[in-house]
Amino acid sequence: MAVGVERETFIQAAELEQKRNSLQQIVKKKKRKEGMDGWMDNYGHTNMINTIHFAGLYSHILRLNIIF
What we know:
Layout: H1 2-34, E1 51-54, E2 61-65
């Protein structure tokens, strides 16, 4: 029973990591496309969980920070 639960948790963690990596790839591509190399440094919110900042003008994702 416990092994099944641990395995299930491990699978869920792996899926979350995969989603996180794909989101980071999207953000990197978006960043390159917009030509805004330094924008992530403007937000020092390192400990906020699942934080998304939207700029009203651009309305694109400035920061995705997913902490496990």
